[in-house]
């Protein structure tokens, strides 16, 4: 599919059925997250798979936005591997981790879409709680969770998906 068409077709899935994501598809999705550009090529992105019963039970204590997706990828960055720019006067103590991890997450999201796997971007959680519940070390910073799976028969895009500002509100000449 043409990429722009793919990008327009993607919507946040909030109605998953129980079908698991096939291992071959998951491999491709993770591979898409591996090969992304990162600042200075430091590659600090880390992907934690949440799919077993025990992990899912923990997940449900840290966010209500899981929508029963059969698979969640918790995307983090390793603070020890980020590019930093202490001289940036706008962002204090800037590091590239959130951008690097978000590029990886976005690329995985569109690879999933290409494979017919629906996704939901989840940020409705407290990072410290996630870190504590999953026992992450303090240098592993949670950025987002990507819920993945197949739609059930109630699946549809909600109203927000169709509500986009016109291009003039995004693009400016300098
Ligand atoms: C940074 C970010 C955080 C988000 N967090 C959540 C979330 O916690 N729960 C949720 O249901 N949707 C979440 N979303 C999905 C947005 O609500 C959704 O992308 C937006 O409303 C546009 O709809 P669409 O994705 O269907 O086109 C998040 C999206 C982004 C990019």
Key phrases:
single chain; 174 residues; alpha+beta; NADH Oxidase; four-stranded antiparallel sheet; two-stranded antiparallel sheet; 5 helices; 6 strands; globular; binds flavin mononucleotide
CATH architecture: 3-Layer(aba) Sandwich
Tell me the number of strands: 6
Q: From the helix content, strand content and strand pairing, which structural class follows? A: alpha+beta
Radius of gyration: 17 Å
So what's the CATH class? Alpha Beta
The best one-word shape is: globular
Q: What's the helical proportion of residues?
A: 25-40%
Task: Describe the structure in brief.
With about 170 residues, the protein is an alpha+beta fold.
Structure description:
The chain is 31% helix and 19% strand. The longest helix has 18 residues, at 97-114. Helix 2 runs antiparallel to helix 4. With 174 residues, the chain is α+β, with helices and mostly antiparallel strands. The strands form 2 sheets. The protein has a 4-stranded antiparallel beta sheet with strand order 1-2-6-5, with helices on both faces. A two-stranded antiparallel sheet has the order 3-4. The chain has a single domain, classed as NADH Oxidase (3-Layer(aba) Sandwich). A hairpin with an 8-residue loop joins strand 3 (84-85) and strand 4 (94-95). Bound molecules: flavin mononucleotide. The site of flavin mononucleotide has 11 residues, from strand 5.
């Amino acid at each position: 599919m043409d990429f722009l068409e793919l990008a327009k077709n993607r919507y946040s899935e909030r109605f998953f059925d129980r079908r698991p994501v096939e291992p071959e598809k998951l491999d491709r999705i993770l591979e898409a997250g591996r090969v992304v550009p990162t600042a200075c090529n430091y590659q600090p992105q880390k992907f934690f798979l949440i799919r077993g019963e025990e992990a899912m039970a923990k997940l449900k204590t840290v966010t209500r936005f899981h929508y029963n997706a059969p698979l969640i990828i918790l995307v983090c960055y390793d603070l020890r591997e980020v590019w930093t720019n202490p001289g940036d006067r706008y962002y204090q103590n800037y590091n590239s981790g959130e951008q690097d991890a978000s590029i990886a997450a976005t690329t995985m999201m569109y690879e999933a879409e290409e494979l017919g796997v629906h996704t939901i971007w989840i940020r409705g959680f407290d990072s410290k709680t996630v870190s504590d519940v999953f026992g992450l070390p303090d240098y592993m910073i949670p950025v987002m969770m990507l819920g993945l799976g197949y739609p059930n028969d109630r699946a549809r895009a909600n109203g927000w998906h169709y509500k986009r500002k016109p291009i003039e509100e995004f693009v400016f000449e300098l």
